[in-house]
Amino acid sequence: MDPATLEPRVQAIGRDLAAALPRGGKGPLRALDEKAMDYAAQDAELRAALFRFVDVVPACRSLDDLARHLTAFLDDVGDRPPSIEAAMRMGDSRAGRAALGGAAAVGVRRMAHRFIVGATPADASAVLRALWQSGVGASVDLLGEATVTSAEADRYAARCAEALDALAGVYAGLPARPLLEADGAGPTPRVNLSVKTSALTPLLRPDAPDLGREDAAGRLRPLLRRAHAAGAHLHIDMESFDSIEAVTDLVLTVLAEDEFAAGPSAGVVLQAYLRESPAQLERLLTWTREHQRASPLTVRLVKGAYWDHEVVEAVQHGWKPPVFEVKADSDRNFEALTRRLVEARAGGAPVRIAIASHNLRSVAHAIAANEQAGGGPADLELQVLRGLGDELQAALAATGRRVRTYCPVGDLVAGMAYLVRRLLENTSNESFLHDQATGAPLDELLAAP
Amino acid sequence: MSALAPFANEPLAELRRAPERERLLAALRELDAELPLRVPVWIGDGRREGDAIVSTDPGAPGRVVAVAAAASAAEVDAAVADARAAFPSWAATPAAERAAALLRAAALLRERRARLTALAVRECAKPWDQADADVCEAIDFLEYYARGAVILAERDAAGELLQPPGERNVLVHRPRGVCGVIAPWNFPLAIPLGMTAAALATGNCALLKPAEQAPGCGGELVRALREAGVPAGAVALLPGDGATGAALAAHPQVQTIAFTGSVPVGLEILRAAAEAPARGARHLPRVVAETGGKNCVIVDADADLDDAVPGIIGSAFAYAGQKCSAASRVLVHEAIADALLERLAGAAQVLVVGQAETFGTTVPPVIERDAQERVARYAELAARTGRLVAGGETAVPAEGWFRAPVIAADLPSDSPVLHEEIFGPLLAVERVTGVDEACDRVDALAFALTGGLYCRNPRTVEHVIARSPVGNLYVNRAITGAMVGRQPFGGNRLSGTGTKAGGPDYLLHFTEPQVVTENTVRHGLVV
Fold first, then answer.
1. What burial class does residue B243 get, using C-beta atoms within 10 Å of its C-beta: 0-12 exposed, 13-18 middle, 19+ buried?
2. Taking CA B253 as the corner, what is the angle to CA B251 and CA B255, rounded to the nearest 5 degrees?
3. Which of A106, B183, B363, B367 could, after both became Cys, cross-link B192 (CB 3.0–4.6 A)?
4. Chain B partners within 8 Å of A149 (Cβ)
5. Domain extent at residue A89
6. What is the per-residue pLDDT across B482-515, written as a single tens digit (0 to 9) for each?
7. Smallest Cβ distance to A151: which of B12, B346, B359?
8. Domain boundary residue among A113, A137, A158?
9. B10–A318: do the CB atoms touch at under 8 Å?
10. Does A55 touch chain B if contact means CB atoms closer than 8 Å?
11. Domains, in order of start, for chain B
12. Considering CB atoms only, which of A72, A150, A210 is closest to B458?
């Protein structure tokens, strides 16, 4: 596939998508109506204070405690806007702290609600059904605290099993959405659950991947059986580079077992920010050719959500970061991997492709590449994150694309790590959403990386 | 020398990559074929082999790792005499040349990294990640102190004293003389080499007495220093047991003793130092001592347990808790004590107790039978007077000095388990009403080496910092793993003489400062 001949289509699709973005709606960043978020985007100290506060909210025992934490963080900010000064003054009295703590708790809960659809799959059912009605699928992700014990891993696995059943109920009886229910390779499940290996085992050790893989496999197999029985898709998320060998080996060894040849539908994640992602993709493609399963392996292509972590960890240890350090390199690699995926599928590799990005350019490129390789609209799934990709989701659905929204489910305590990551990521001035929200011209947004 | 690149820590092996792990396993196979290593008493050009000291694999006590001679009192005398003879020339060697030799030694260690890592795995049962960090720290000490000595010489030359007209003031830091280095087994490469390198960098002659459990590692270090061009008289190897160490510490012509080890031995060395003049010493021996710890981690109610649990578990049980920095007590706010205990217990139960050479092992065997029995005694005491929440009945391999990790709670406040250094995989958890009670308990201890705090309120963090007596306080992270140039390491109170290894002030302990003031006024004129 020649990127040069692809380019005019990328631009045309990009413009169509841009035109289909909801008008007059709030941008994904402006949608965060808390004034604090505006401050956070402008001032590094305030941003740090806000995120450190959000992070500690679930651990605060009372409104008073909450207010004390808030004022302690704000106290470290050198140059405080007037409204923050006012908040600081409230911290001086018990009544003031109760009011301030109450307001802050409400604010954080509202923020969390944008990204997290409910405390349980049942709570989330209204949102999930509404998405389906509007032609949008979902992948549910059960948020949780870190798994450090076997009991916690067992509880997570049990929650996943329950979620598969609950989601089967949520999607039962909903009207047909052909674009979401079959592609060129056959039917695709309505129910789609994403699971995390780090939650399935307390034994992920960077230097001993077998340990975590074997322990997690013991909990993954029953989930695969359950998913198969429920006709659901199970997607194993990718996390930090420390666990990549364990996670990849886990998925590829367990799915290769005879028992799972007939199902369920399952998938893995490829992180384009990793320098070695092209080699990883080749490994996946080789595997799909060597292991014929009833459902092709879904490969969800993402940029990667642990960039800061990877860079900090590498620098602290004296390692070369496993990720591209320049964002444009990740974007370029994302496109190269996209093309490799659609070409491999066109060449007969049993693989389904999910493109997970909020970058209009990356998405338009994937759509154009899929077209050029002869894929229909159902053959390319586009994935967005709840709360961040809402507008893109609407534009994709409106233009007849297959779109799935990643919907985290969990309570505030469980969801805090996810929430903070999303907030940090999206007040970063390196992100596409930031450029989009701050009014970068469309030509620039759609330019080849 | 100003062309030297700024100090940077030696990168750790990236063990999350399979080829790195395979490389190390291959190095272990090569080493095994070579065992046992022969370690001589090595004074000047004279090498005497012997078999008085034998180090064995703590995970397979039948496997002999090194066979060493034990330096006699006469040999200690000879080594001191040899070092005294070599001292004037080594002391007069420009700092930059001494530094160059240390940097060549660092390069040799770097070449031999895999083998040295494997040796620490075998001789001291350090799991791979721990052994690798040990080798890196050894290299760091060479690189850091080489630069530090050059900087010190440059600073002396540049002159920092006030110079009023008619007066020339010069401060120089001269080497002290012969330095006896008495090293522990738990960092069998980094700690002996750190102390030795500091002595050598500043122009002292060093006599290294490695731990009797780790003569093989000590031998490799002296070999590297010699091959790098440190003169034969400037560094000697004196393997041996406590008697060799005692002879070295009591020698009236040893000016400095650098020691890392237990409190009782540290006190003996200080006593010997005080008595040195009576034995004919014309100096007060300086003792640079790094002793034990009883390290507490405070967990406030607002702590993030997702961070605290792995941080505490790693600090308490990595390398079976055999680090002076290891976590020994947790002081947790009562509001989250139950949750923390449950998670700590569960996290301890999944730790792999196994051979150091097996990737994934967190808790290797302890160093020797005595250690195994000592830890068992404390565990029994904890079970009898308190409650074991983890590790009471975990099975461990029969051969080798294994001890499963133990977590104890509800101990009486005067329990020896809470006050004595155990140096093994035993962690005690106590409930407190708040950080102030926790600070009170920390303050009541004689030890003050490392400490930890998990807390997310910046005001509380400041408060605990202000109240903390420890030498190294870690906030919201593990309390072990100090790195050269990043966390200069050393304890206060009974934990040491207050020196900071791997920090900018450490070398000063190996020097004698001298100030020369010259009157430059002649006949009322400044000339």
1. middle
2. 100
3. B183
4. 342-343, 345-347, 349-350
5. 35-113
6. 999 999 999 999 999 989 999 999 999 999 999 9
7. B346
8. A113
9. yes
10. yes
11. 38-291+496-514 (3.40.605.10), 295-475 (3.40.309.10)
12. A72
